[in-house]
Amino acid sequence: MIFVVLAFEDSVHEENIVTYRRVLYNRRNSNGCAASATFFVSHLYSNYVFVNELYNRGHEVALHSMTHTNPSTYWRDATYDVIKQEFADQRVQMSHFANIPFDSITGMRVPHLQLSGDNSFRVMSDYGLKYDNSWATNAYTSPAMWPYTLDYQSTQDCLAPPCPNASIPGVWVNPIISWIDLDGYPCSTVAACYYAPDFFNETEWFQFILNNFERHYFGNRAPFGMLLLEAVLYPFPAMQRALERFLDVINNLDDVFMVTSDEVIEWVKNPVPISQYRTQACRQFIPTTCVPHQCNFSSKHGEREYDFESCNVCPRVHPWLGNPLGQ
Fold first, then answer.
1. What is the architecture of the domain spanning 2-6+10-310?
2. Residues 187-240: pLDDT tens digits?
3. Mind listing the GO biological process terms from this record (predicted)?
């Protein structure tokens, strides 16, 4: 048995929701349960009505920071308080404006996969977050590394230091297992694969995805992660079709299950054999309502005026660091 985790990141808005609907909606695994993806959502430019829609379709909503600030040195040097405002406060914000259960938001990914030493994991521990999906590995790809806790100091290689060096019991590392590009070089995200197939060649892209998957499938069957940016998929229909072909294949295999990052962690906590997994009840959740509110503010971030759609009443001021609900 092997899990496939399809993960998107950045804001959710009126353009990329079209791709998500086309590629992901109404998929099921061979056991009849919904095939789900994980969305690491950043606050800036997100439409919370669409975030609510993703949640109600059975996908996981996780945290990708409030500001998604550049450059990566911001995250490298981020203090405990900065991480708390960017992620712990964003959890409150996401739950409020998307009207989804606070406890359903369990994971986080730091922008640019840039770690902040022990700080992000200490925030996770103190504020009840379950797992991080920011820490990439090149050394543990074959056999691939499984998720693990920081109950003991990690021995994982550190690609974007500073990496944590303390024991922080209870929090999980869901490591990013690098893909191998066409020239044999590791790449932490699909977009980072330098020697990749031609973006207009569907067959080559399908084979590229399949080759990386098979390294896990015919190896130790550690979860296979696909870290994608919709902004890279959208301009290249051939690449989209290749992804859909791959998902069609795995959704029909008896021993492959497309699940969320949180579901992987829960299985690792309490692993069961495939015979039991295939017959157990599908994941249950209660959909939430969303009454859209269009919120406009004079505050500017980047180069354009900021607004967003909320499932809750519009805040008094623009929600931001130190004031996640805009009160």
1. Alpha-Beta Barrel (3.20)
2. 999 999 999 999 999 999 999 999 999 999 999 999 999 999 999 899 999 999
3. carbohydrate metabolic process
